[in-house]
């Protein structure tokens, strides 16, 4: 088993270097090229909190200024780096039946100065909170899955406020866009960039938008998009609610099919689908209403589906099941890579932090696929386990005692300066 680990570690190191060599080419200055590699390595490290301070200490820098400069001031284009990550994912995980997954996630924040923040519903929190929302694009194939792109959702309270835009560095070209519109742009960019894909999947926020569905048909991309139970579809008996159609289905219309492999076994549900020829438009193709029923509770979920060619029910079910992988990606990037731990208020810094987290996640996804571990009695290596092993075997350098002492002194000096400033400010107004 130890021999297998050594082989895997060497392969992981090669993959990491391959990705970082490509990304580093986007940076003109050698200092930035070195720092971006150290920054991604810091994101992969098991640090209790991830920010420019902790990442700089992990890299052995003498202060956080270099990492802060990389995220806030250095000259580089985060969109081009995400394009490099997309190409890396296409080369390592690409498959003709690839699925593009769209979903948003929220980062809870305090105050009102962080770009995009306002009180809004967050699925992460399950309620209305003060947070940022971002639409993410993930790629899933039989080889694995990874985040590949992102778009920050900017509410009208931001797009319509010139002062807030200037303070947060929001580009003049950025205007208000709904989440489905942001998702459509991400998908269009991925298709134009050559990411091999056949399907798109998303939740009700995207399935309820007819413009997004039409755009996908225009790209000849099949889709399985969740819709509300009240969603109305055209049938030979007129326009009907999705839940009304489900009530009238005979027992033989339902088939028990697994939506994929879960931690505790196959995810079996009862499924039915109904052809919707009345929904045909200029894009031709085939429309369906897909219905999922929980075997225990009877709870139902509904999906609008389209494909340029006829497909069997189990194909649509497989695409619907793929949607859950983006939740796994959110969990992995938040718990292990610091996706939501950024402390940056401005537009550019937020996109740069998020882009480098996406790059770290793409490396882990590719490395798990390349892992040669086949020992009996072990599950396939997970992203979280690979991250821990990669740090222990490849990243973690021999640390000098002097480095730890120097950082302790640096932090305490910074805290002493801040304390003095707070007391001096208070003395101006308090007796």
Automatic annotation (TrEMBL):
Pfam family membership, one: DDE_5
Residues spanning the signal sequence: none
Family matches, as InterPro entries: IS701-like, IS701-like_DDE_dom, RNaseH-like_sf
Protein origin, superkingdom: Bacteria
Domain Transposase IS701-like DDE: 26-233
NCBIfam families hit by this protein: transpos_IS701
PANTHER family xref list: TRANSPOSASE
Protein's name according to its UniProt entry: Transposase
Organism from which the protein derives: Actinoplanes palleronii
